[in-house]
Amino acid sequence: MGPVFVWMNGGGENHWVTLVLKGRMGVDGTGSNADAVGARVHLNAGGRTQVQEVRAGSSYLSMDSIALEFGIGTAVMVDEIEVRWPSGRIQVIEDVPADQVVAIEEPGS
């Protein structure tokens, strides 16, 4: 038997936000697909802009997460989240506190 190694992540002082998007197809049968695959998000925090797109992919016995995870450094607030839905709708959300999971539902027409 060899040594046992345990990785302990004490966390850090930086902040984050995770976005979980839901298209209108999963709400009332209109708009973008339920998992929001293809939605593009522009997130502004701490003077920086990050862009991510919801993608779906899988492999044998695995699946990629469709949640979007952003590291925002020392910023304690997200200044603006712009979601460009596959349906063409654009949604803007401002002043979102850091360190949380935010569920965003596509707005109706």
Describe the overall structure.
With 109 residues, the chain is mainly beta. The chain is built from no helices and nine strands. The protein has a single domain (15-105), classed as Immunoglobulin-like, CATH 2.60.40. The chain has strands spanning 15-22, 40-45, 48-53, 58-59, 62-63, 68-73, 77-84, 90-97, 100-105. It has a four-stranded antiparallel sheet with strand order 3-2-7-8, with no helix packed on it. Strands 6-1-9 form a three-stranded mixed sheet, with no helix packed on it. A two-stranded antiparallel ribbon has the order 4-5. A hairpin with a 2-residue loop joins strand 2 and strand 3 (48-53).
How is the secondary structure organized here?
Layout: E1 15-22, E2 40-45, E3 48-53, E4 58-59, E5 62-63, E6 68-73, E7 77-84, E8 90-97, E9 100-105
Parallel strand pairs: 1-9
Antiparallel strand pairs: 1-6, 2-3, 2-7, 4-5, 7-8
Which radius of gyration do the C-alpha atoms yield? 17 Å
Helix % is: under 10%
Biggest sheet features? 4 strands, antiparallel
Please tell me the total number of domains. 1
Low-confidence stretches: none
The total strand number stands at 9
Order of helices and strands: EEEEEEEEE
Say what the CATH topology is.
Immunoglobulin-like
Number of helices: 0
- The averaged pLDDT comes out at 93
Global shape: flat
End-to-end separation in angstroms reads 63 Å
Strand order of the largest sheet: 3-2-7-8
Q: Based on the structure given, which CATH architecture is correct? A: Sandwich
Helix-strand category: mainly beta
CATH hierarchy class name: Mainly Beta
Strand content: over 45%
